[in-house]
Specification:
The chain is α/β, with parallel strands linked by helices and 853 residues long. The chain has 6 domains: 6-138, Nucleotide cyclase, GGDEF domain (Alpha-Beta Plaits, 2-Layer Sandwich); 144-293, Rossmann fold; 305-399, no CATH class; 408-485, Arc Repressor Mutant, subunit A (Orthogonal Bundle); 508-723, Tetratricopeptide repeat domain (Serine Threonine Protein Phosphatase 5, Tetratricopeptide repeat); 740-834, no CATH class. It contains 37 helices and 16 strands. A hairpin with a 5-residue loop joins strand 15 (456-459) and strand 16 (465-468). The chain is globular.
Length: 853
């Protein structure tokens, strides 16, 4: 209040506040951070709040601000850390003349933010009373989004210089770092990417592929890292996004990936512009590939203290040893032992790091004795087929494992089931079980492993710690799990935990926490896929029974159906649901009914209403037999939608009416609202606008009472369509604007496509053909990218409605605007949608338009 701020809304523990001037916003943020830092909190704890500032001109919708400027402000804030104030270039320029005394704006460079196309230049407020020791911002596609190494790169100065020069050469499109596991390929790639960030204006993207085993998932992972849609044909989405953009992609760990060479070649051919930096144990043999072998570190040639201390391997050993024993240095007393250790480990960086961690307990001489006595660095008969350095690394990992106490060893083995890392809750649920020596405190579970560099700890999307293993170490841990532990039980607990995670986040996908829920599911997508694979595939002969696994798999697919729909992954979702159908069909009953419903929803979304109808009929028959009326109401509603999309309103009406009757009789307001919405849409199609409005208004009231933000948006869209068909396009435009807040902030791309189409039809009726064509082009692009096909009936209706607008301009002008709309990103399409149009409110002929119910 002191700075003239106005609180607009809250979500969770975040506040959305607006100010009349940028300088007031900066002054408020500085004062708030100082007050929070200076307050005496109970128990001496610190309360740290992250703050992000952006200035713009958002649209006003029902007393609230919506649009990309609001979204940009939220993403800028989410990139910050607790206690930090960051601001956009726009805010910095406005506030610069009146910054608080002693406060300055420190340039943090360009950053790519989630869901925002263009890189954003971000600044940090610095000055008295403000913390300044923050990690890099949590952003996408810049050097600051690269995994942050805990220590400077040691012993690779020459390699780094040569690699940067190779990547900067204009004719170079692909550089592959090759070498044995643990030699430091990833570490060198990260250093080069960080050094070259400013040379790639469209960003630097780190793509971790260690958990990926086939080209299809590789394309999906690339799409996820680039923040483009992962449905339809991910390869087309990735190459379409990268074409003409000078970006650097670090593709980490390709050797285990079937089809990696073909995928990389296809990417280079289809998308001129990006430069690829790959890491692999072997070259890809792709045309134009520049192989960059990464050697082991230079080992000391003599035992002289000066020569030993100057060698790359010994410098790394000293650096890592100093982290566990402060003040450690190479001296005359230990130089010979350090040199011998580095030579025994063949200069492999990972082996040196693991060994150096034991200096906390052992002197270099004692460590050398253990290396020679118990690790067996010379390959035995069983290891003879392995490369020498791989044998060395394997034995080093084995030695570190042998030094663990039983509880830590058990944690190490069981952590191998996680794909892409895990958070503390997952660790506690999967690794620690009743009576285990590991105990129950998840932080204690990993402390010993992190101490010997067997796991890494990073910050997750919610600021909580996230644990992971290097893939080479994880492979060894998985072998030991299969040999010495309860592998089936561990995988069962893993799948059960992620089924519970999916169910929990599913409940948030239609509420205010939708974006957060989607981000959390994406963060664990590799784990969810691993859980689906285990639970939906036949078990080993002596493993957990198929029935128990199938139950978990059925829970997973039911909970993830809405995620697959909203994130545009219907194709992948269909594949998992079809596997689940094969399992559920044997027993029938409730599981089959639920899986059939989910598969039907995705089929209908992808323009296959007849196939969806058959699945809904199967599900309805099961629910009728079981006598579950609530599910009958849901299935009748879905079946009515399918008939509606098939162009059979006479068949759809009684189904929707029965759904309404059951839901009303049961007092289930959620089911009632859904059925009324679809019944209203149907009445709108057949031209009974009074009955349509009555049903939709009741649905809107119910959805508002329940706080169903998507339901409210869908009702308003449907009412706008009624007004349009009734010849009131001005009224339709005003009603549709009530959906813009949801569209701009929900991430629901299928709904965005429907709103763009309806807006195009309304704009055409308001006689603004240029804007109508561009809106339609934007809708076309989203449908193509997501694999959302219009039915022939829907396409005919759209063409009928746009015909008059098309005729009002030249064919060349119409085609140009359509192409311009198709070239927009989703974020740019949202900005086009919420920006004011140029049309006048003029009457239009009544027409019909297909809608996504």
């Amino acid at each position: 209040a002191a700075w003239g701020g106005r609180e607009m809304s809250t979500e969770g523990d975040s506040f959305f506040v607006v100010f009349e001037s940028a300088s007031d916003a900066v002054g408020c943020a500085v004062a708030a951070q100082r007050a929070l830092a200076g307050h005496e909190w109970p128990g001496g704890v610190a309360v740290r709040v992250r703050m992000g500032l952006h200035s713009g001109e958002p649209a006003n919708s029902d007393g609230n601000y919506v649009g990309m400027d609001v979204h940009r402000a939220a993403r800028i804030a989410s990139a910050a850390h607790g206690g930090q104030v960051v601001l956009s270039e726009a805010t910095r320029l406005l506030a610069a003349p009146r910054l608080p005394a002693g406060v300055s704006a420190r340039d943090l460079g360009f950053h790519r933010l989630k869901d925002i196309e263009a890189p954003e230049r971000i600044y940090e407020l610095a000055g008295p009373g403000l913390r300044e020791d923050f990690p890099p911002l949590k952003s996408l596609g810049t050097q600051t989004s690269l995994p942050a190494p805990a220590t400077p790169l040691v012993g690779r100065e020459g390699d780094l210089e040569r690699l940067c020069a190779a990547l900067a050469a204009p004719e170079v499109r692909l550089v592959t770092l090759t070498g044995t596991g643990g030699v430091g390929k990833t570490r060198l790639a990260l250093a080069a990417a960080a050094a070259l960030g400013q040379a790639f204006p469209y960003g630097v993207f780190f793509v971790a592929l260690a958990a990926v085993r086939d080209a299809e998932v590789m394309w999906k992972t690339l799409a996820g890292s680039l923040d483009v849609s992962m449905d339809g044909e991910p390869a087309d989405a990735v190459t379409g996004y990268l074409a003409g953009r000078r970006a650097l992609l670090v593709l980490d760990n390709l050797e285990q990936l079937d089809g990696a060479a073909a995928a990389v070649a296809a990417l280079l051919e289809a998308a001129p512009g990006p430069v690829l930096l790959a890491t692999s144990r072997r070259p890809l043999h792709v045309p134009g590939e520049h192989e960059f072998p990464v050697p082991a570190l230079e080992v000391p040639g003599t035992a002289g203290v000066h020569d030993v201390a100057a060698s790359a391997a010994a410098r790394l050993f000293a650096q890592q040893a100093g982290m566990v024993r402060p003040g450690f240095a190479v001296t005359a007393d230990n130089a010979a032992d350090v040199a011998a250790i580095c030579r025994r480990l063949d200069g492999l960086p990972l082996a040196i790091e693991l060994a150096a961690a034991r200096v906390k307990l052992l002197s270099p001489r004692a460590l050398l004795a253990r290396l020679g006595h118990s690790l067996g660095l010379a390959a035995g008969t069983a290891e003879a087929g392995r490369p020498l350095r791989q044998q060395t690394l394997r034995n080093t990992v084995a030695w570190s494992y042998d030094l663990l106490d039983p509880g830590a060893a058990q944690v190490f083995r069981r952590m191998s089931v996680f794909a892409g890392g895990c958070d503390l809750d997952a660790l506690a649920a999967v690794v620690a079980t009743g009576g285990d020596p590991a105990g129950s405190d998840p932080l204690e579970l990993v402390a010993g492993l992190q101490d010997v560099s067997l796991v890494t700890v990073t910050e997750g999307i919610d600021g909580e710690p996230r644990m992971s293993m290097l893939e080479t170490i994880r492979d060894y841990a998985l072998e030991r799990l299969e040999q010495d532990d309860d592998v089936d039980g561990t995988r069962r607990r893993h799948a059960e935990h992620y089924a519970a995670v999916a169910e929990r986040e599913h409940d948030q996908l239609d509420g205010p926490g939708q974006l957060t829920a989607l981000d959390r599911l994406e963060a664990d997508l590799d784990n969810l896929r691993a859980a689906l694979t285990w639970s939906l595939e036949p078990p080993a002969a002596a493993g957990v029974g198929q029935g128990e696994r199938a139950v978990i798999g059925l829970r997973l697919v039911q909970a993830l159906t809405l995620f697959w729909y909203q994130r545009g992954q219907a194709t992948e979702g269909r594949r998992w649901l079809q596997r689940a159908m094969d399992l559920a069909s044997a027993d029938g009953g409730e599981p089959l009914a639920r899986v059939a419903h989910g598969l039907g929803v995705l089929l209908d979304t992808q323009g296959e209403p007849d196939a969806a109808r058959r699945l809904f009929e199967l599900s309805l028959a099961i629910w009728r037999e079981l006598g579950v009326r609530d599910q009958q109401a849901r299935e009748l509603n879905s079946l009515g939608i399918a008939h509606h999309h098939l162009g059979d309103p006479q068949a759809a009406r009684p189904l929707l009416a029965e759904s309404v009757a059951i839901a009303r009789d049961m007092g289930n307001k959620i089911r009632l609202a859904a059925a009324l919405t679809n019944l209203g849409q149907l009445e709108s199609v057949v031209g009974d606008f009074d009955r349509a409005t009555q049903a939709l208004q009741e649905a809107l009231t119910l959805d508002s009472e329940q706080g169903d933000v998507f339901g409210v948006a869908l009702d308003r869209q449907s009412l706008a369509l009624v007004s349009l068909r009734a010849g009131r396009p001005g009224e339709a435009r005003d009603l549709l604007s009530g959906t813009f807040d949801y569209v701009a902030n929900s991430g629901n791309t299928p709904f965005l496509a429907n709103i763009l189409e309806l807006s195009a039809a309304i704009t055409a009726a308001l006689r603004d053909p240029v804007r109508a064509a561009r809106l339609m082009g934007a809708a076309d692009a989203i449908r193509k990218q997501w694999g959302m096909q219009r039915t022939d009936r829907e396409a005919a209706r759209m063409e009928q409605y746009l015909a008059q607008a098309r005729a009002a301009v030249s064919s060349q002008a119409w085609a140009a605007e359509l192409a311009a709309g198709r070239a927009l990103t989703e974020q740019e399409a949202v900005m086009l949608l919420v920006s004011p149009g140029q049309a006048h409110d003029m009457p239009a002929e009544q027409s019909a338009l297909g809608e996504g119910a």
